[in-house]
DNA sequence: CATGAATGAGTGTTCATTCAT
DNA sequence: GATGAATGAACACTCATTCAT
């Protein structure tokens, strides 16, 4: 791992664990095994580092979601894919996603606008899937926008507690959440592992996570 | 509002908006319209202030939950009450609850232990309701603990986006979330406003929130 | 001397001796016998301190010059007064005037504009006196603007070398420079001490300098 | 222009514009279009660079002055030459001369001693000319040393404002200053352009400045 | 009850300089 | 020659906290 990568990794780890404002430049330096001055060869300001992490992470999620839902006309399949992908991303990359979800307030106005725009673009995929499902009569919900937010928060929460060392493997987690989400949308039924295979493949590509939960 | 109350209110507002580490003692002083030195007449350290806010807030939620579920043998009724109460608390007191949910990492080990113990005690009410519902055959979920966490995150998320100025009043919000939760637990069905009345009353008592959503 | 005054005095001394950029905040703190943090009770930024010194010093000179030339219709008398005043100010307040003369480049654009405006206002008094003298036929110079700049630089230079401990007292210095200036303007002749009395009085008032050179 | 020359030119430009302490090594590198590390192939420390600039510049002025006054027994001619040369040097090389005049305080004690010795040697030429003129009865001044300093400051000031794009060409400037100086010394009279020809030639040789003011 | 004054430790960032490549 | 990488020390400035008044 190069020094530049170590800096980024240190930032992800510490921003996730202690928050942006709770992480000092000297903490980053120590974690990256560099002097605090050397940090500045690999980053602009501390905020630049945060923005880069958030934007990259969000864009990756957005691209993965676009890929995983591409060509799926069925709203149920799309939502299932979105839920699975979101949950897997948050379970596999809890630090990155916690930073994205928790540190928006630490951004300056300009940077926040950029990040929020990406987030909105991503959420629009969810909104569209739910809306289409309601229109198609496969989803039933009195307040689609509220439901969307509820489901997103539910899925994002995974980053706050999931451990790959626990009893539930990644694919089981994804299946369970997909079922919860579809039930909440009034479309109950089992989710088969085969339904998730495309998602798992996208996840494996995008985040370098093995199909099996047997690593690290 | 007394000076002491102004200090606490300032802390809740700013800790919620900018985080504990993102809020300086001078910010608090300005918000409370006091000098920074005077702050220390009303608080111990900055961390003491945070701990007080978190502990008080959690204890209030815990007491309210205990009161709202007391005597209800029916797991469905208990869970409905817990969901409604949690959602209402987060919608009515978004700042307090955001502090509780987001700033645990800012606590020292000793303080964190206290706060986490309270939180665990509260979550145990949820765990018990779900477990009882599963045992009674009214809830169906393959991973009760995971489901519990998913629902808690879903409900806590309300504090991040709900606005009383939006189209959905508090009671409607509570009903909707209760329905989402029960559906997710495999127990679909409408939730009547009358089912929530006891909750709304507890909320009104505990958090000084009017029944009607027509205030500021 | 209060702490605030000590800070200002330290800044004048050190900015004059080592330049704005050559003076660290810790140097100021040491000179003012305060911690570097305490400095910030008495100043805004380091640049604010510089601006305050320059603006105050220039305004004082401008006011003194206006007072010393007020009511004098004779261009010769006005120029004599301006020269004497300028020289006395630079001899009596060498640190302040060196800061004003040398640190303009250290200012931000906005601050520089303010300071330069004051300086221009002051130089206009010189320009007017010279122009009037030329028009009246008492001064003879082919390039009045160049001459004005030459004389100003000549007089400002005093701050770079004059010592009250040297053989030449303040009033002798002023007389000598007044003679040099008038000669350069083609209006030779002795300058009597009585001609300078009004100037010396203004100087004594404005800069708290005794008439006699026998202090400190 | 070689890299080494670019470094020196960058230093002259930036030290003049922002001061020694106000100029960072990175500023120099950028101006010289080199990396900051590469700078150190062409210089010792930042201070060495400053010393080299000052010493070279002063020695060149000193040599030029010696050459321009060599063999001239007439104190008036000598002073006229000194003034013209000084003014021309400051008008033609404003950056170099500003560095020499303003950055003496930035030098370490040892380096300052070297530079001041050169400056003293140069000023001695002025002192000698004035003294000789007074002794010969062609100059009249009550305080020769003060007058010398006054005239030197007057002439050095040219570097702070003269622009070759203004209305006054170099030779006109030199003539005007020579007249001002001789008048101040009680020896009025026109200065003919032919009187300055030797000086202009020395200037052209030493500083690569064309006789005509029509360049750049 | 309230605060101006004060500070040691810490903030994010830049400094001039070195050195292996 | 030229530079990316590296750093200890310093930079201007803010931190949470104390205390005499």
From TrEMBL, chains A, B, C, D:
The keyword Hydrolase does not apply. Residues 24-43 bind DNA. Pfam families: TetR_C_24, TetR_N. InterPro entries: Homeodomain-like_sf, HTH-type_TetR-like_transc_reg, HTH_TetR, KstR2_TetR_C, Tet_transcr_reg_TetR-rel_C_sf. It comes from the Bacteria. One of its GO terms (molecular function) is transcription cis-regulatory region binding. Residues 1-61 form the HTH tetR-type domain. Keywords: DNA-binding. The keyword DNA-binding applies. PANTHER family: HTH-TYPE TRANSCRIPTIONAL REGULATOR RUTR, HTH-TYPE TRANSCRIPTIONAL REPRESSOR BDCR. This is DNA-binding transcriptional regulator, AcrR family. It comes from Amycolatopsis saalfeldensis.
């Amino acid at each position: 791992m190069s020094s530049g990568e170590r800096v980024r990794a240190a930032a992800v780890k510490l921003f996730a664990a202690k928050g942006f404002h709770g992480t000092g430049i000297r903490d980053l330096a120590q974690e990256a095994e560099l002097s605090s001055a050397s940090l500045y060869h690999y980053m602009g300001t501390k905020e630049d580092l945060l923005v880069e992490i958030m934007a990259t992470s969000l864009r990756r999620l957005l691209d993965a979601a676009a890929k995983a839902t591409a060509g799926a006309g069925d709203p149920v399949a799309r939502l299932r894919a979105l839920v699975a992908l979101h949950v897997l991303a948050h379970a596999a990359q809890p630090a990155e996603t916690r930073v994205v979800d928790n540190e928006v307030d630490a951004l300056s106005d300009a940077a926040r606008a950029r990040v929020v725009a990406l987030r909105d673009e991503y959420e629009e995929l969810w909104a569209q899937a739910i809306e289409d499902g309601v229109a198609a009569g496969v989803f039933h919900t009195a307040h689609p926008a509220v439901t969307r937010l509820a489901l997103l928060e539910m899925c994002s929460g995974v980053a706050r507690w999931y451990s790959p060392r626990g009893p539930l493997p990644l694919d089981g987690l994804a299946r369970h959440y997909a079922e919860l989400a579809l039930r909440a949308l009034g479309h109950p039924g089992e989710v088969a592992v085969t339904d998730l295979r495309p998602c798992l493949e996208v996840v494996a590509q995008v985040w370098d996570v093995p199909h099996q939960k047997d690593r690290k």
